[in-house]
Amino acid sequence: MEAGVNLVQIFDSWAGVLDQESYRTFCIPYMQQISEALETQVPVILFPKGAWFSLRDLSDIGSTGLGIDWNIDASFARSITGTGKVLQGNLDPCVLYASDEDIEAKAKAMCQSFGRNYVANLGHGVYPDTELRKVKTFVNAVKAFRY
Prior knowledge:
The protein is built from six helices and five strands; from the N terminus they run E-H-H-E-H-E-H-E-H-E-H. The model has no long low-confidence stretch (mean pLDDT about 95).
């Protein structure tokens, strides 16, 4: 934090391998503890990949935002979290293998579907063999988006 971090994202890339009860027992309390400790210093985004069932619990623990993977529909996420919670995500990283036109169309549709209080991003990381040019196409499409 002292080096100038403006935001922290806590990745729980394996969240979806647990069932809801196990995730509530073994993960939610620690996500809350981490979020509360950091929120006094910087905004926190929690990213529970694959744990669609945890959105309400994680939305209620007080983080600034939630990362959403590509398997979670924007309208479903908003119905759980409301319009005030910042959401981030959820473009399937495989879209970056598509044509430039398809990438641009998917990026635009994604931004439209989430509305305001949204950070455009992939629903997880970039695959190692993804062309840099395709990543730039995605970034430029997001930058060009207007509500």
